[in-house]
Amino acid sequence: MRQKRHKREGFLKIHVAVDIKSKQFTGFDITNENSHDSKHMTSLVEQSKEFGNIIKILADGAYDAKHCFSYFYHENIIPGSEL
Questions:
Q1: What is the mean pLDDT of the chain?
Q2: From the centroid of its chain, how far is CA 21?
Q3: Residue range 1-10: mean pLDDT, rounded
Q4: Which one, of 64, 63, 42, 62, lies nearest residue 54 by Cα?
Q5: How far apart are CA 9 and CA 73, in angstroms?
Q6: What percent of the chain has pLDDT over 70?
Q7: What is the pLDDT at residue 70?
Q8: Do residues 68 and 38 make contact, with C-beta atoms less than 8 angstroms apart?
Q9: What 3 state SS string does 17-80 have?
Q10: Could you tell me which of 27, 81, 76 has the C-alpha nearest to residue 59?
Q11: Chain-centre distance of CA 56, in angstroms?
Q12: Considering its fold, how many domains does the chain have in total?
C-alpha cells in the first residue's frame, strides 16, 4: 500500500508481557515505529513485578541487548531461550 500511494504512514508497536502459566497480561507499552524494542524491556519487567516474583524471561531477538542482560543480571533474572 505504501508503494502505491508513495506515502509513509506510521504505525504503533505494542510490547506485551505475559505470564506463560496463567496466560495473563502483566505489562504493556505502546510506542511508535521509531522506538527500539529493547528500550521497553525494563518497563515490562517492572510492571510484571507487581504480579509476583520473576525468575525467568523469555523474549525474541529484538530484546537481545547488552543493557537488557545487565538488568537481568542485577535483578537475578534468568534470560531463557526455551520453556
A1: 87
A2: 18
A3: 64
A4: 42
A5: 38
A6: 87
A7: 94
A8: yes
A9: EEECCCCEEEEEEEEECCCCHHHHHHHHHHHHHCCCCCCEEECCHHHCCHHHHHHHHHCCCEEE
A10: 81
A11: 13
A12: 1
